[in-house]
Amino acid sequence: MENGGSRQATMAELQEVQITEEKPLLPGQTPEVAKTHSVETPYGSVTFTVYGTPKPKRPAILTYHDVGLNYKSCFQPLFQFGDMQEIIQNFVRVHVDAPGMEEGAPVFPLGYQYPSLDQLADMIPCILQYLNFSSVIGIGVGAGAYVLSRYALSHPDTVEGLVLINIDPNAKGWMDWAAHKLTGLTSSIAEMILGHLFSQEELSGNSELIQKYRNIITHAPNLANIELYWNSYNNRRDLNFERGGDVTLKCPVMLVVGDQAPHEDAVVECNSKLDPTQTSFLKMADSGGQPQLTQPGKLTEAFKYFLQGMGYMASSCMTRLSRSRTASLTSAASIDGNRSRSRTLSQSSESGTLPSGPPGHTMEVSC
Ligand code: BEZ
Questions:
Q1: Which residue intervals of 262-357 are DSSP H helices?
Q2: Could you say which of 12, 26, 277, 340 is the most buried, measured as most Cβ atoms within 10 Å of its Cβ?
Q3: What is the overall mean pLDDT for the chain?
Q4: How many helices and strands (H and E) does the chain possess?
Q5: Sheet strands (E) in 89-135
Q6: Which residues does the annotated region (Disordered) include (predicted)?
């Protein structure tokens, strides 16, 4: 348990730092205050930022970002997307920064033992206890998707739903390690992480987005910390999902991956291992490796359907466009706040056809 000098913290020792941030406003929006907190956990301190106020009888939305990013660089384009506002105004949001990834984080001392992904997952109960939140809907990308899945496996009663983007639930095999070592001989850490985040096609296309993220990562003052998170990701254990087995996600899950994204095969395999009545799979066209950055509109629409399937969004909240797209479909969505029994949401983005599932429980997101 000893980790970088950290030790078991009592609640009385939890520390709080409050920073009020400026958040650019969208037309017609009222300002929302973001508060950043830090709490001590058995594995060191963790920082998270809370937007909005808790809504009675609703879970918090909790996000966990991927390697090379922090909550802002990973999720800001999605959470500040126009159509997303009508969704998130109904939820308090908790955006976790993995240790050492928060803005202005000092570089960890040499020899600091960075938490494993399992230990990062074990920090989440400290955050929820501090905030007095009892349940969450998680949105995680890459390493963050793994962390949230691990948390959901150990605390299934507190996770109402999961949106997992680019999840790879498998530990690296020896072939992956060999490839990783070879790449490491010729590439910098920053380039390796960029190769994890984006497709080769995107990287060679060198769009403005790629230039921006290459610049952020290459010049990150906390690059040494990022490398530690990267190492933890590469040393992850197998999540051992097993369809019909004991190790499985019990809540509704929306798996998302860009077509031709680096993790496409891993997400497809993950889909095959999860409970099909609880899992929807969204392969997004034209989205590259980071759909939440490149296709916030499509992801917002899919997220809205996902929440509807859980009974959290009244169909009257759907945009006219969304309603017309689903006009021929029936939906399991129920009245806002009155959660439906069915939690199944199936989506197909590629062929436009709908996967099999119980009638009345199927929705489509056209991508
Ligand atoms: C939010 O409103 O939850 C949010 C705003 C900015 C960045 C990330 C999230």
A1: 264-273, 291-294, 296-309, 320-325
A2: 340
A3: 83
A4: 13, 8
A5: 93-97
A6: 330-367
| pLDDT at 183 > cutoff 90 | no
65 lines ligand 1 (CB under 6 A): no
- Pick the residue whose CA is nearest to atom 6 on ligand 1: 76
Structure confidence at residue 84 (pLDDT): 97
CA of 52 to the centre of ligand 1 (A): 9
Per-residue pLDDT at 247 exceeds 90 = yes
Q: Answer yes or no: is pLDDT of 71 > 70.
A: yes
H-run or E-run covering 192: helix 189-197
How many other C-beta atoms can be found within 10 angstroms of the C-beta atom of residue 272? 12
Mutate which of 33, 64, 72 to test ligand 1's pocket (most atoms within 8 Å of Cβ)? 72
- Answer yes or no: are the C-beta atoms of 293 and 77 closer than 8 Å: yes
Instruction: Indicate whether residue 48 lines ligand 1 (CB < 6 A).
Output: no
- Position 277 confidence tier, pLDDT thresholds 50, 70, 90: very high
Coil vs helix vs strand at 93: strand
* Residue 251 DSSP one-character state: S
pTM for the complete prediction? 0.83
Instruction: Assess whether the C-beta atom of 75 lies below 6 angstroms from ligand 1.
Output: yes
